[in-house]
Prior knowledge:
- The complex is a heterotrimer.
- Chain A is α+β, with helices and mostly antiparallel strands.
- Chain A folds into two domains: 5-48; 58-262, Uridine Diphospho-n-acetylenolpyruvylglucosamine Reductase, domain 3.
- Chain A is 33% helix and 23% strand.
- Chain B is an alpha+beta fold.
- In chain B, the strands form seven sheets. Chain B has a seven-stranded mixed β-sheet, sandwiched between helices. A five-stranded mixed β-sheet of chain B has the order 7-15-14-13-8, with helices on both faces. A four-stranded mixed β-sheet of chain B has the order 18-26-27-28, sandwiched between helices.
- Chain C starts with a strand and ends in a 6-residue tail after the last helix.
- Chain C is an alpha+beta fold.
- Chains in contact: A-B, A-C, B-C.
- The interface between B and C is large, with 56 and 54 residues.
Amino acid sequence: MYDFAYEKPASLADAVAALGHEDAKVIAGGMTLIPVLKQRLNKPSVVVDLSGLGMTGITVTDESVIIGAMTTHATVAASAAVKRAIPALATLAGLIGDKEVRHRGTIGGSLANNDPAADYPSAALALGATINTNTRSINADDYFQGMFTTALEAGEVITSVVFPIPAKAAYVKFKNPASRYAMVGVFVAKGPAGVRVTITGAGQNGVFRHIGFEHALAAKWSADSLTGVATSQDDLNSDIHASAEYRAHLCNVVAKRAVAAAG
Amino acid sequence: MNAPFEGIGASVRRKEDLRFISGRGNYTDDINRPHQTYMVIKRSDRPHAKIISIDTSVAMAAPGVVAIYTGDDFANIGGLPCGWQIHNKDGSPMAEPKHPVIAHGKVRHVGDPIAVVIAETKQQARNAAELLEINLEDLPGVATTTDALKPGATLIHDEAAGNVCYDWHLGDADAVAAAFKSAHKVVTLDLENNRLIPNAMEPRVALGDYDRHTGDYTLYTTSQNPHVIRLLMGAFVLGLPEHKLRVVAPDVGGGFGSKIYHYAEEAIVTWAAGKLGRPVKWTADRSESFMSDAHGRDHVSTAQMAVDASGKFLALKVHTVANMGAYLSTFAPAVPTYLYATLLAGTYTTPVIYVEVKAVFTNTVPVDAYRGAGRPEATFLIERLVDAVALDTGIDKIELRRKNFIPIDAFPYQTPVALQYDSGNYFATLDAAMKAADYNGFPARKAAAAAKGKLRGIGVSTYLEACGIAPSKVVGSLGARAGLYEVANIRVHPTGSVTVFTGTHSHGQGHETTMAQLVTDQLGVPFSQVDIVHGDTSKIPFGMGTYGSRSLAVGGSAMVKAMDKIIAKGKKIAAHLLEASPEDIEFKNGNFSVAGTDRSKSFGEIALTAYVPHNYPIETVEPGLDETAFYDPMNFTFPGGCHICEVEIDPETGVTSIINFNAVDDVGRVINPMIVEGQVQGGVAQGIGQALMENAAYDASGQLLSGSFMDYTMPRADDLVNITVGTENTMCTHNPLGSKGCGEVGAIGSPPAVINAICDALKIRHMNMPATAEKVWSIINGRSAG
Amino acid sequence: MPQVTLTVNGKSASVDVEARTLLVELLREKLGMTGTHVGCDTSQCGACVVHVDGVSVKSCTMLAVQAEGTSVTTIEGIAAADGTLHPMQEMFREHHALQCGFCTPGMVMSAIDLVNSNPQGLSQDEIRHGLEGNLCRCTGYHNIVKAIDAAQGIMHAPAAE
């Protein structure tokens, strides 16, 4: 690791000020940032720790689940309120990394990083979440802009995420056997944003909506509706763990399982 | 109150555990020396390249830098030695190119050291390493033996024409050819044994220290065999005599073979500590382990079995190409020859065998012994071939095995590939494993799984292996540049407690417990009064270390021999005290007594007398009770057994789940059943890892693609199931314990059991390992032949 | 240089560290507590697991400065003051759940958290899934699962007064 300055601001304003330094980096849970720093793949001048800002906790209303950006995956996974409102979201949180990662990793960190094999982006996009920052609210449709790329601007910090409560939803994850990230993760939802199917882990550009699956499920919400619905291999990853062809196949199998799980 | 039974056969809880479960282990990285410096290695990120220039000037000026060394600094020092010389078919010696301590002129694999930076802190060393200006000119690289053997392939060493290290054979080619001509059928199978990365959980560490007052060097290192390292490094690399060099291997966090070898880092820190007059410490990052620890396996083979109409094996012919990697690691040449080809009879009476092995250099990390070493490759080949014979002839796979097993009354059994098996009963282990696995109930379970849309398969492996490689005279004639005996020093203290100094090394095997049980059993000394010391050349007379499941069969036997000397001396002392003749003294349950009387002296009394010799036969017996034995075995030992694996495959995804795994192993006399069971379970887990998920992946040019746990699939708890272990015990006939060894059986017997089960489930003839979900899915969907 | 003040195994410590210092480096190198191990550099092996404010974390993936004001428990701190082993330690020994011992500290700390956070009890299958963040190369996990299963019975038993 290269050395850096460390700041733990007590207010959002101070955090934003600290992020004004050139090559400043935010640390939330650090589950991605610290491994990256250890590999010396990043050389921040200052690391700004958001853990002094609060921004934790879960609020459930009739329409939505609002999660503070610094809420850990473990908290979401264990939340009785989330389990009642959007059980798929609690399931997803419980499938991220391992329990030590879940104790530190945060929803804000996951969404800000937008790893192409991360789990949360699939839920945010499928449920039509709103990502609140210190300056604005961003619709998930506009937020994800390709792997490790988001609509966040320099100095912009996620404060909370609002998930509309769907009628039905489920997340099924086919794990990369080595890293345990999603090789193919599928989030299906029937909610305010309509029928949505999002896929993480498979695409070269990060999370994406599977329009073919969405149309089929909009016509009839049933796993069988997906039989024979193809997934283009063009933009899928191909690596030592899985070819694009296999990932395309898995998209279908996993989506069916997700629909079955959603009921 | 009766003392608990803590001798041979008791599942005594381990002595070493208290420190390990309390965080009080003493691993090499836990050791720090005053004024220590830190070494970071700049490694090649290219598979094959010419070193045009290395400019160290900027790096040298960086804060905290103490020294920077490159290949030039080691050019006049010996290369890393190879401990085994193989001869070609024509009798000429193998190609043995120099393995520079630091790459010189060329880099030959990703991970090859180019320079080392030594600094006051690790971070400073790392910072400076980034400032090295290294100019490399890429050369074409090759990762597979197939590519390396192609005409016009890039030449990795000038000394190895066509990249061939050796072209060796064993057996009777003419007899095999004749048998093939007259055979009812010849069954052929092409198969690969996938390359593995050992990944002991503790990364390697080396800490060199130099005492400027005495001129003594000390190397603390993560080694399975400190004396071997002292010999190889002292005599062949650095030119340091043994009495000035101490090698300490304290608690070591797993080895599995990968910590047998003498590695460059050990020589560099030792040499640099002397140069600098300060301790030098190197600790591997896991990423470095992936590209610098010796890998395992990596064979490409064709196997052919000739059978008669009844299914009796008539002749076996095998052709294997083995990947040596970029350089010869310490014991690499022996693995695909004497640890592989000699095992090809397996448990069967195949009367004639001919095997050709070509060893080939590639631009990959050196390959050497990894848990099982040669024997898993042989077992996978045989046990897969037997299933192919069963399929091709229509004979049931169990019946075929029974028909060809070496009969119980045929021992000692001379195989056509040099080995003579002393004992075994393959029928007993097969029967026991079938019973444990409820083999006969399988069709019903298969039908039940089919009703759920799943594919079930059951696979059997009836394996044999050779442990405790020996005798020295024989291995010497086969090319070993070392003896393979073992050493034990039994020190009885004046008050009767015992310290054992063993030349073996425990890095998870539990020797501190098992060996103490041996002492309790033989000398009657309470278990708590026995300590086992290993891993320090300044304490232990000598030793060859731990690998090849040799510690009990060879090291334990050395202990028995030394304890025999203790007892013999004790009898003389007792005879004097009891005014009897030594021939009339019996030693039993810790007491020396005059036969047929109640006159006796306890072991403790004799020990005290030996050290306080007031009333003592001083004219004929020396004071003290401290004996050493070197034990050179008569033969290998031959554990064998049967592993049965049941799998269930999800045809939609190709995911294979292990449903049940039963191992029944004949490891001879068992000292501690709990430890044996643990050893087998761990070995089986590694075997299942090889069969289902582990693979060292390279691209065609030699870039390592699976260079971290992100990409190299290690078996996790949820990948595995409970592994049921049973033992059958035929005794080894030529060592005093009757023990055969249990460290490797799990990794040797299990991979073919898993793949046989998958082939059974998929109704296919063969597939190579690892059986990843995608591969299985491709086969199910006709996209691949397997 | 930042100063970190924290409690380790009940004892307070104030240490000057670089901002980049990892918690595991603080423990091993600054405090000499070498029971916690480092087995990988990609946050996967779990040899470095400790408890921070009562929950398991990978100390190789946490900056020492992030531990400011926390209470850290390591493998050296789980036995009772009189030396009585924690039930998890005891069951690891009883069931031969360790061989080389290198993964053991992290495995034990992870297992304690797993059991503590599941008072309803865990099936063997759930225990296996709960160990996703811990690699062991020696045991094949069989005996680790057995040990945790046995320990949960003791840990959840009503305290004998």
